[in-house]
Amino acid sequence: TLFTGGHVTQAEFYHEGELVGVLTTQPLDRVLDYKAPEGGCRAGAFVEVPLGPRKVLGVVWGPGKGDYDRSKIRSVIRVLDVAPMREEMQIFLTKAGDYTLTPMSAMLRLATRAPGLSDPPSMQKVYRLGGAEPDRMTDARTRVLEVLRDYGGLAFTLSELAETAGVTTSVVKGLVKLGAVLEEDRPRDTPFQRLDPDYGGKELTEDQAEAAGVLRASVRSGSYGTTLLRGVTGSGKTEVYLEAVAECLRAGRQALVLLPEIALTAEFLTRVEARFGAKPAEWHSGVTMTERRRIWKMVGEGGAQMVIGARSALFLPFQNLGLIVVDEEHDTSYKQEDGVLYNARDMAVLRASICGARVVLASATPSLESWTNAEAGKYDKLTLTSRYGEAVLPEMRAIDMRGEQLPSDRWISGALQREVNARVEKGEQALLFINRRGYAPITICRACGHQIGCDHCDARMVEHRFLKRLVCHQCGETKPMPETCPSCGVEGRLAPVGPGVERLAEEATALFPEARVVTLSSDMFGSARALKAQIKAIADGGADIIIGTQLVAKGHNFPLLTLVGVIDADLGLQGSDLRAAERTFQLMRQVAGRAGRSERKGLALLQTYQPEHPVIRAILAGDEEGFWQAEADERRHASVPPFGRMAGIVLSSTDVQEVFDLGNDMARRDGPLRQIGAQVFGPAPAPIARIRGRHRVRLLVKADKGAPLQAALARWLAQFRPGPQTRISVDIDPQTF
Ligand code: ADP
Ligand code: ZN
């Protein structure tokens, strides 16, 4: 059952011995009664409580229920030395849990993702760059110094530094003795440097100044509201929303900026520093443990004014959040696809509406959801119409591949080849885009026709020459390329079919022997740091031709880039995904937007076998409104999101019979759903029918826009007792349907 906790007023204080209800991070899904400890505790306090033989972390959620034998109730062990959870956070977690049908314990885990929360404050030894150069440099020493330089002024703990540099701690200690690295004592958790809202603002264009003025006023209003900030890539959306951040800082409130991709943060941090004179806090999976603990505490105490982060930053304990910016709001990576299934964009709106903050959704190609909300007047609209400065939107043209007589292992058309050559000669850059990682998507045996698949998933293994392995993109399993066919045993007949980014790079290297070709694909970099370095090198002119996957479509600024060639514009249009058109439209426009971001004019060429396809035509015509209107009509007609409500229920088990039996049973006993007029479709094999050896079956539930879907789902699901091997996961507003 779900816990719908309601909420408590934070003024509530419980004296020693009074009953309090504590929500823990353990999967129990009810609030447990405890006695308040010596000295009492406040509602919202983070506490340690006994649970069986263990001590666990929890939050005082409200008064105890008292429906349990009082003599057996144990006491809270201690109150932790961190700011209590604010009431608005309790409400946010409760509502978000209700919306996504997630147990409260799992929601609380999202909100306590800081290591060492229960440790007492203390001093620690940290290491930073010293002045001295050692006489004798070894590879290991060089790596340590490089890491410290790369991370600017950041201090590391001993183990973090050794681990990041890939050396033993004695190497670091040796450098300390030589004065090349400094060892200092620092309190664990220190505030971030103050940001100055008036430090380095740019002079805005008329268009930008107007938009910034509207946003500033909305931030000053101090109440909830969402603005969809549209504008082509390079129009200055970032400059404009940084003005909203400035206003938020002036008002003494905190600002959160969500970015869809960690690789973008480095470039962004530099910009923020130039604007506000100091670096903000940075929260994502690449941040060290010590730093995370510090951020978590400082956000809660007001010692961090601004956070740049991944979607999980929404669950930080902000003391006084005034603004949330969701940059590239349409990006699919905002949808968590593992664990708690939530869309960070929607959760940002929810969180802001609870704490009276403003939301800015920025995008050149908004999601259909946000576009619809703006059309309906639920969101304010602001649009920047032109690119900043001399930069103009690239010209877009299709290359009709039906006329090209390319051999089966080549993908760069003659027309594209000529344009690339022209750029390279002028010292400009060309980007060849293909949204496929690895060398070749298929490995086939030329003797028997067998295609190498994953042993655990219903997926093909993808050859990655860079990693010298076959990789399953579903479960991550890898294996070496076999010499002989696993099916017929014939040797030497396994061959790659189709292009991946690595194979395209091979073709480009052969076609353009004079050019410097670099490949940008997420799996080719050992660390976020290496990737950052590569991106910077490209921006500084260290490459002529960039071969890239989706990674390059997002927000990077390459001033010398004037040509984008999309190798296969049709790729996203295949398959049965209803959102395929929207995705392709967004992706193609984002990619094309990479070209000509400075004063040089850009050209985008789309290789396609179906130039008359409506989506391709809308992209070429740059007819955004027309595209959204047509797409909205189609979805309205099918009453699918955002014009109807949907949930995907995925059942998975190692036992294929068990999942189908359960699925059929669920489809039959659909009373609670029928009560609200909802329909169930399926069970059918899920889009990926087997992952990591687990069979997956999906049911889709469709309801009208206003229907109380979650409540009905909860009642429906409560009827079933899945077997021990079976897992049920509920995905409200699934990405694919
Ligand atoms: P978007 O976020 O819409 O893609 P950006 O804010 O990143 O656009 O702006 C694109 C480029 O133009 C950036 O390098 C930015 O610094 C520059 N730029 C935009 N507006 C101005 C301005 N008013 N003055 C100076 N530079 C600007
Ligand atoms: Zn697999």
From TrEMBL:
Annotated Zn(2+) 1 binding sites: C445, C448, C485, C488
Name of the protein in question: Replication restart protein PriA
Cell inner membrane listed as a keyword: no
Family: Belongs to the helicase family. PriA subfamily.
Coiled-coil ranges from the UniProt annotation: none
PANTHER family for this protein: PRIMOSOMAL PROTEIN N
Keyword vocabulary terms for this entry: ATP-binding, DNA replication, DNA-binding, Helicase, Hydrolase, Isomerase, Metal-binding, Nucleotide-binding, Primosome, Zinc
InterPro entries: DEAD/DEAH_box_helicase_dom (IPR011545), Helicase_ATP-bd (IPR014001), Helicase_C-like (IPR001650), P-loop_NTPase (IPR027417), PriA (IPR005259), PriA_3primeBD (IPR041222), PriA_3primeBD_sf (IPR042115), PriA_C (IPR041236)
Entries under Pfam families matching the protein: DEAD (PF00270), PriA_3primeBD (PF17764), PriA_C (PF18074), Zn_ribbon_PriA (PF18319)
Binding-site list for Zn(2+) 2: C454, C457, C472, C475
Subunit structure: Component of the replication restart primosome.
PROSITE patterns: HELICASE_ATP_BIND_1 (PS51192)
Single GO MF descriptor: ATP hydrolysis activity
Enzyme Commission code(s) on record: 5.6.2.4
Catalytic activity: ATP + H2O = ADP + phosphate + H(+); Couples ATP hydrolysis with the unwinding of duplex DNA by translocating in the 3'-5' direction
Positions of the Helicase ATP-binding domain: 218-384
GO annotation (BP), single: double-strand break repair
An example Gene Ontology CC term for this record: primosome complex
Cofactor: Zn(2+)
Details of cofactor binding: Binds 2 zinc ions per subunit.
Role, per record: Initiates the restart of stalled replication forks, which reloads the replicative helicase on sites other than the origin of replication. Recognizes and binds to abandoned replication forks and remodels them to uncover a helicase loading site. Promotes assembly of the primosome at these replication forks.
